[in-house]
């Protein structure tokens, strides 16, 4: 039997070896989106589609953790460039175009007489859990709101979106495929939401 004096350093050494192979930088990518059965029409004015209201640094999107206490070890960062926010802006724009809309950017501070679509990212966080190694659990979630505002700042429409996933993987943790799946499913949800009658009525109000 190994003594506790040997077990602790051995566990730390094993954790270091395992975590050295984990994914530290994650590209924020997108799969092919699903077009709606009936495409929307018109030009949609957009502001900042991915304003972060998170408390974490912009490029930090999670941690690899060790032990049953979930001790944070290696940070998981979004690939720079473009970074998490710029990548999400690009992907949401693609979702809007896939839905059928033409889009026009409204620069910050500009006043317009039509509704403007804006977005807020509330959560973008992924972690790996190693306490059952060599089986690794990888999970996380994205939460965001899209808001359609009238010229006077009135909220005409708001919809919250969330994608939450947890997967069991053999050996080393890779996070990119889980992020890619989540971003794609979130964007497909956006396509469905902005082609509903409720959104179209708010969009056509002005």
Offer a quick outline of the entry:
The chain has 206 residues and is an alpha/beta fold. It has 4 helices and 9 strands; from the N terminus they run αβββββαββββαα. Helices cover 29% and strands 35% of the residues.
Describe the structure using short key phrases.
single chain; 206 residues; alpha/beta; Rossmann fold; nine-stranded mixed β-sheet; 4 helices; 9 strands; 29% helix; 35% strand; elongated
Describe how the helices and strands are arranged:
Elements: H1 4-20, E1 25-26, E2 43-46, E3 51-52, E4 60-66, E5 71-78, H2 83-99, E6 102-105, E7 116-129, E8 135-149, E9 155-170, H3 176-193, H4 197-203
Helix pairs in contact: 2-3
**Percentage of residues in strands:** 25-35%
**Broad CATH class:** Alpha Beta
Class by SSE composition = alpha/beta
Main pleated-sheet profile: 9 strands, mixed
- Helix/strand order: HEEEEEHEEEEHH
The CATH superfamily turns out to be ABC-type transport auxiliary lipoprotein component
Number of domains: 1
Number of strands: 9
Low-confidence stretches: 4-18
Q: Helix content range of the residues, please? A: 25-40%
What is the number of helices? 4
Terminal CA distance:
77 Å
Shape annotation: elongated
CATH topology: Rossmann fold
CATH architecture: 3-Layer(aba) Sandwich
Mean pLDDT: 88
Radius of gyration: 21 Å
């Amino acid at each position: 039997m190994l003594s506790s004096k040997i077990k602790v350093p051995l566990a730390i050494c094993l954790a270091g070896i395992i975590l050295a192979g984990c994914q530290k930088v994650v590209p924020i990518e997108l799969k092919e989106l699903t077009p709606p059965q009936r495409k929307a029409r018109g030009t949609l004015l957009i502001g900042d589609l991915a304003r972060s209201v998170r408390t974490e640094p912009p490029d930090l999107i999670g941690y690899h953790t060790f032990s049953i206490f979930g001790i944070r070890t290696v940070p998981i960062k979004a690939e720079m460039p473009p970074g998490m926010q710029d990548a999400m802006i690009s992907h949401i724009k693609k979702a809007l175009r896939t839905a059928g809309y033409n889009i026009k950017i409204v620069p910050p501070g500009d006043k317009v007489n039509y509704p403007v679509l804006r977005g807020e990212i509330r959560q973008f966080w992924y972690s790996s859990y190693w306490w059952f190694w060599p089986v690794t659990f990888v999970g996380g979630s994205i939460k965001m709101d899209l808001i359609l505002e009238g010229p006077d700042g009135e909220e005409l429409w708001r919809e919250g979106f969330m994608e939450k996933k947890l997967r069991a993987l053999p050996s080393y943790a890779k996070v990119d495929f889980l992020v890619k799946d989540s971003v794609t499913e979130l964007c497909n949800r956006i396509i469905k939401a902005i082609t509903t009658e409720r959104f179209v009525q708010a969009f056509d109000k002005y």
